[in-house]
Fold these 2 entries.
Entry 1:
Amino acid sequence: MRHGKKINHLGRTSSHRKAMLSNMAASLILHKRISTTLAKAKALRIYVEPLITRSKDDSTHNRRMAFSYLQNKEAVSELFREISKKIAERPGGYTRILKTGNRLGDNADMCFIELVDYNETMLSTKESTKAKPTRRRRPSGKKKEDEGAAVTEASTGETTGKEIKPKKTTKKAPVEKVKEEPAVQTDQPEPSEEGGEEKE
């Protein structure tokens, strides 16, 4: 039974595992993205993220502690000079694991592990999604009131308190047209007179 065994030993001795994680962490810091198995990537994330947090405070003690884990001067200088500036505002979660399918030989789960702030494509897509304005539906009554207010302000320059008046005028306009139609119909005797003149 494996009660309370949280560490994945990855089928290696302690010294082999520490050396492997140290090399992988240095490679991740230098190249910003590496391809590995899913199990190793999860173990590496636990190993490298505390080191990245240490890089926020650039002191001699923190540099020496990082070097004791990485055993690589170039990786330590890259971590404290470049990466610490990029992740200064981020409160954790510095790495991202992207699954890429299974390996042909042994069918192991493969993935990329990368530093979040160095993936330009994902950062650009986030900015583009934020730039889009949100569209909200208005109730139909409010839209008509806004149009009426615009008409009153453009034509008369009246205050918004008299927005209801243009509505009444727009309602009266069709009624006047209905009254005019019967007046046109009463003019029908004129053609009959003209017909009578033609007969004469």
Entry 2:
Amino acid sequence: MPLLRRLIALVPCLIAATPLAAQDVRGKVLDAATGAGVPEAAVRALSADGHDVGRARTAADGSFRLQLRAAATVRIEAQRTGYQKTVTGELPVGQREIVDVEVRLSAAAVAIEPLRVTARVQPPKRRSLELNGFYDRERQGIGKYLRREDIERQPNMDLAHLLSHVPGTAITYQGSHQYIYFPRNGRPTISQSRRGPPRNECLPRVFLNGVRITYDGQNDINSFVSPEQIEAIEVFRGVSEIPVQYNDNNSQCGVILIWTRSEP
């Protein structure tokens, strides 16, 4: 039964392949002469060193969407049989930014402006997160961060499976209870007693709205709050990552900060 339970728990991880945090470049590939959308064009995002960091194929109206795993400055390459291949100039895409563009293809070798940015959209910022320093820590890039829009990309998940998609995390089980831990710090040893907590102090500390809460054999990660109530999550897997105000002698196994929604 424990093996079956683990196999069942893996199913959501295999289904949900969408990155929790992403940056999008979306738009259309257009015929430079007619302005009509170009279907079935191959589109790639190229990093500064020429590596492929995203690819798509245009729909019937020429539309496409590229999802980048990290903020970057990229060039957009578009090509289709019967057109000259186009590689645009540099396009900066910020953290969690959505950039709308138009890429133009020419059937003849003529000088055109291949790329036009039509919109940039940043997700809204919450006052409560600003006051608690969330955005400042996110900008520093130390730790892992989930915002509300990242959580909504993974519907119908409990908190344990949502957090298991963060790199460097894993789930361990005690009966029906689920515990998130960080393998780099060691695997918790489950007590033989059904009521006993995981041993060897390898569970991270958990803070809800800045207040430390009890995370033990009686209170697993799903017992605190549901994903629908969460505005943001911060994950710090080791002592070197943990903000000073949440770091003490007993934080060596990491820290998870959970911020609930205070605004509609």
